[in-house]
Every structure is written in structure tokens, then in C-alpha cells.
Amino acid sequence: MSRKARSMRPFAYQRAADASSAVQTLAAAAVENTPQTEATIQPLAGGTTLIDLMKLDVMRPGTLVDINPLASAWSTIDLEGGNLRLGALARMSDVAANPQVQQYYPVIADSLKLAASPQLRNMATLGGNVLQRTRCTYFRDVNYDNCNKRNPGSGCAALEGFNRTHAVLGTSDRCIATYPGDFAQAMIALDATLEITGKSGVRNIPFAQLHKPPGDSPQIETTLAAGELISGFAISGRWPRSVYLKARDRQSYEFALASAAIALDVQDGVVRDARVALGGVATVPWRVGAAEALLKGQKFDDALAQRAAETAFADAKSREHNAFKIPLGRRVVARALHRAATMEI
Ligand SMILES: Cc1cc2nc3c(=O)[nH]c(=O)nc-3n(C[C@H](O)[C@H](O)[C@H](O)COP(=O)(O)OP(=O)(O)OC[C@H]3O[C@@H](n4cnc5c(N)ncnc54)[C@H](O)[C@@H]3O)c2cc1C
Ligand code: SF4
Predict the structure, then answer these.
(1) CA gyration radius for the chain?
(2) CA of 81 to the centre of ligand 2 (A)
């Protein structure tokens, strides 16, 4: 490894006048873009990931399009009709502090409250949050050449390197980087719909289809076409019996080593519906259908929660330094299930 001298590269800055001109500008440059990761033009929301990675020389956009002028239309928190819609430019802190989100969707409020720091949450948006990049040390340090995600085809320094924080689910022999965010686990557990605005208009996809596991092309992280913007998130129904539990090296200002987003419908002690999603242990926000199937229709007790937790990690594959994540993750799932099943609503 040879150390490279770095300085921040020059870039152009534009303020979006409206959504239509923002997507036109982004899409016009799209032909020159390699996928998502190396885009030459990039939307700027709170900037807490993007500017960080530009300073590290990991992301090198030639132009930033500041989408904050769209905030009046894109930052609403709407709870009408028993459903929830969140604008992509809503700040993490505003959504976490919303009393109705806390009451009807505690898994969302907690996933946001337990993330980052108060200052970051005041700045950071939901859209930027779900598109944050991995914290893999080798990805974030350009002195390492071997990173398939940053430098496709170069290898993966983490496979034989220090991989304590890396993923045990959804990995490939090209990349084992962990998806680092918290809010996305709540979205995947609640079957959220993602609203995307592009030059052809608005389209909706299941949130679960946003992130792509690394496979043979870890540099392609999402299914967004270049130039598309996330404009909102929609959730059907209310999920008051839901929790987000996060295990980390310290109690604040730290990413998850293992986390669980749980939503349950329990009637007379029987689990009618169950949603189980994992964070900190997988390459993408990870929904565990097998654990949900095991829970549904069963009388809840801690033995059932333990079996669901075992099932959640049945396919886990550890590396030299991260085997501890499997028992830790099981404990987090079992405890989160217990907390959700026994909470007073
Ligand atoms: C020290 C530190 C600790 C942190 N800890 C946590 C943590 O514990 N849990 C957690 O979840 N997060 C954590 N974060 C990450 C933080 O939450 C994200 O940086 C933040 O949510 C990103 O939002 P932003 O608005 O600042 O995005 P930006 O930095 O502006 O953008 C991020 C990316 O998304 C793109 N983008 C932004 N908005 C849109 C949009 N609407 N449509 C399409 N593309 C868009 C940008 O082009 C960029 O590529 C931490 C960050 C730091 C620096
Ligand atoms: S785990 Fe992924 S992001 Fe980390 S070095 Fe390997 S290829 Fe790069």
C-alpha cells in the first residue's frame, strides 16, 4: 500500500430550482456516469455522507445539485387516512420527534433516534440516509487499492483483512461490506413503498427492491437509474407494536454491530403477523421471511423468539473476525421480539 496525497477536488455547485429541472440536470449528465458510485453529478441533501466521502476522495462528483430548495414539497410527514408518507427531504430529527410517528411507528422513530448524533440528525435527510455508503475501512481509505466497490475488479482487501464489522449475510466473494444504516431496516420491515422521481415522472417500487446485494458487481448498490431522485416513502397501515433494537460498541454515535427491526400483530397472545429485518450484519437491509413464517400463527413465548432468532441466522457465513456477530445478532432478534410482543400499546 502506498500512501497517496489527497486534497479535495474542485466541483461545481447548482441549486435546484424545482424537481423537474433537478431531474433534467441529473439525467442529462447520466450518459457520462458510470453507475451510482462514480457519478459525475450527484444530488446534495444534508451532505453528511456525500461531503464526507468527497473529502476522503472516495466520491468525486464534478457537479453537485443541491435539492434542498425542494424541501417545502418533499419534507412533509403525513399521517392521514391511517397510513404514513414521509418526504425524502424530511430531516431525521424531525421524523424521530414526531409524536404520531412515535405512537404508531415506534420502529421508525427508534431507528432514527438511535442513529448518528443529534447534530447529524438535524442535518441529514431520509433520502440521503437510505443511500449512505458502507463504513468498510478499505472502501473509505483510497490508500487501499483493493476494493471492488470503489475500484471494480481490484479485489477485496477485507476478505483477508480486518473484517470485524463486516457482513455475515448476503456477502459474495467480491465484497462483504455491511449496509450501515438503521432507518432502512424499519422501511423493509414495514413493507414500505419507495417513491422515485425521474425525468419521465414518478414511479413507485417496493422499498425492498432499492438495494442490491454485492454479487459480481458490488459497485452497483441500488436499482435507481442515474438521474433519479428519491422523493418519498409510504407505509400502509399502522404498526404500534414495533421496535428497533441496536447493539453497538458504545451507546451513542455508533453504527450497529447487529440490529433488528420488528413489527408484530399479536392478538390473545398469538402472533397474527410478524416482520423481522436485520441490520449491521448484512450487505443490504435484510428481511428474514423464514423467521416471520415460523412466528406466524404461534402463541408467543421466549422459546419461540429464540427459534426465530436461530432461523434468522441459519444462512450466516462468518469470516476471521466477525463470527461474534452471529450469536450477538440472535440475541438482538430474540430480545427485540420479546420487547415487541410484551410492549403496552
Ligand atoms: C459520524 C457519523 C455517524 C453516523 N452514524 C449513523 C448511524 O448510526 N446510523 C445511520 O443510519 N446513519 C448514520 N450516519 C449516516 C447519516 O445518517 C447519513 O450520513 C445521513 O442520513 C445522510 O443523509 P444526508 O441528507 O446528509 O445525505 P447526503 O450526504 O446529502 O447524500 C447521501 C447520498 O445520497 C444521495 N442523495 C441524497 N438525497 C437523495 C435523494 N432524495 N434522491 C437520490 N439521491 C439522494 C446523494 O447524492 C449521496 O450520494 C452517520 C454519519 C456520520 C458522519
Ligand atoms: S468489503 Fe467491499 S467495500 Fe470493503 S474492501 Fe471489500 S469490496 Fe471494498
Answers:
(1) 20
(2) 43
Element (H, E) at 340: helix 325-342
The mean-pLDDT minimum among 37-51, 91-105, 116-130 falls in 37-51
Nearest ligand (C-alpha, residue 141): 2
Smallest CA separation from ligand 2 atom 8, residue? 147
- Determine what percent of the chain falls in helix, strand and coil, rounding each to the nearest 5: 35, 20, 45
**Strand runs labelled E in the chain:** 12-15, 41-44, 63-66, 77-78, 84-87, 193-198, 201-206, 229-235, 242-247, 258-267, 270-279, 286-287
Residues with CB under 6 A from ligand 1: 42-50, 52, 88, 115-116, 120, 123-125, 127-129, 131-132, 181-183, 229-230, 255
On whether the CB atoms of residues 218 and 148 are closer than 8 A, the answer is: yes
The C-alpha cell at 339 is: 420487547
- Give dist(CA 83, CA 101) in Å, integer: 11
What residues contact residue 49 under an 8 Å CB cut-off, 6+ apart?
Answer: 124, 128, 131, 132, 133
Q: How do residues 83-106 score in pLDDT, each as one tens digit?
A: 999 999 999 999 999 999 999 999
Q: Whole-angstrom Cα distance, residue 107 to residue 96?
A: 10
Residue closest by Cα to atom 3 of ligand 2: 139
pTM: predicted TM-score of the whole model, two decimal places: 0.96
Which ligand is nearest to the Cα of residue 198, counting in written order?
Answer: 1
Classify residue 36 as left (phi > 0), alpha (psi -120 to 50) or beta.
Answer: left
| Interval between CA 215 and ligand 2 midpoint (Å) | 12
Residue 36 has pLDDT above 60, yes or no: no
By the 8 A CB rule, do 245 and 336 touch? yes
- DSSP classification of residue 80: G
Contact in structure between 23 and 198 (CB atoms under 8 Å): yes
In terms of Cα–Cα distance, which of 230, 247, 222, 239 is closest to 336? 247
Closest CA to 266 of 189, 185, 343, 190: 343
